[in-house]
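Hi W., the PMV complex you wanted:
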Amino acid sequence: MVSTEAFVCSFSENNLPQNAVFTWKSPSNIALVKYWGKTEPQIPKNASISFTLNNCNTVTTVSFEQKEPSENQNIEILFERKPAPSFLPKIRQFIDRILPYSPYLNYYHLKISTENTFPHSSGIASSASGMAALAMCFMSLEKQMNLDISDDYFYQKASFLARLGSGSAARSIKGNLVVWGEHPQIPKSSNLYGIEFPFQVHSNFKDYQDTILLVDKGEKQVSSTVGHNLMHAHPFADNRFKQANQNLSVLSQVLQNGDLSEFIRIVESEALSLHAMMMTSNPYFILMKTNTLQIIEKIWEFRKSTNTHICFTLDAGANVHVLYPFKEKKKVKSFILKELVPFCQKNQYICDRLGQGSELML
Ligand code: PMV
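Structure:
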C-alpha cells in the first residue's frame, strides 16, 4: 500500500527553475457512487466512483517566479482575466496543506489565471476541476525539477494533491471512470488518491452521454464542507457508508457486464440516498427544487413508456445529470429538449459525455 510519505518531494535548490509556466485543462466529474462524509485530512468514509466529463473543464495557467523561501509568497489570481482576490483564501489553504509534500512551492511567487469552460455560476461545482488543474500545474513544475518521475507517480501524486484541495478533485486527474477510496474488490484503490477503474469496461458505456439540466444556478444554501461535517453525528451514517461500498461492488460488475437496468437502479438510488442524507441530518436541508422532482418524474415516465435506458443522477445541488447510452442519443435528446429543458432556469443545459481526464495545454 502506498503511504503519504511516498508523496514527500525532496529536491535540491540547484535544480529549481528560475521561471516556469504551465497550463492544464481539468474536467469536472459526476459521481455514480457518492462520497459524502470524511475524516481529516480529506479521507473518505466510503469508496466512490465517477464518470469524468468531457466538456465541463477548468483551464488554469500557473506562472512560477523564483523567490527566497524566507520572502513572503505573492499569489496573484485572475478569473476570466479579471483579478479575483476572493479566491485567495481557498488557494492559500490548499497550498498550506500541500507544502509538506511539495515544499518547492515555497520558492516561488505564483500568478494563477483560471477560467471554466462551463457557464459561470451555473451551479456546476468548479472545485473538482479547479483543484485538479492547479495540482497538475504544480506537478509539471515538480517533473521539471525531477525528470525521473514516472507517469504513474506523476498522476498519482497529482490526484493526492488535488484531494487535499477538494475530495472529489482526486477523481478529475486521469481516466474516464475513476475510483477513489479503499475498496476490497477494487485492486490498488486508495483513500489517498483516485485510480482508473481497473477492469475492462463494457461497450455499452462507451461514449456515455450526460446532459446537465441547469435547474437552479444560485449559490447552494449549504456548502459541501458543511454537508460532509453533518455526517459525523448522522444517525444513518454507518449504514450509508456500508451501502455505498456495497453499491460500488455491484456497479463494478455492472460496468464490466453492461447490465444497463442494474446500472440505472444503482445510480438513481445513490443520487436519492445522497439527498436523503441531507434531508435527515441535523440540521436538515433540501437542495432539490420542485423542478428537480418534476424532471425525475418525467424521466421515469419516459423510460417506462419507451424502454430506453435514460436515468438521472444528482450532485450536491438542484441540477440534474441525465445519463444515457450513446446509441439512444437521438431519441433521448429529442425528449430532453421537448420535455425537460422547459424545467431549466432560462432553458439552460449543457451537453456532455464521458471524457478522458486532464490535458496539458502548454
Ligand atoms: O469534493 P467535495 O468536498 O466538494 O464533495 C463532493 C461531494 C459530492 O459531489 C456530493 C459527491 C461526490 O462524490 O462527488
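Residues 31, 34-36, 48, 125, 127-128, 166-168, 224, 228, 274, 315-316 surround PMV (CB under 6 Å).

W.
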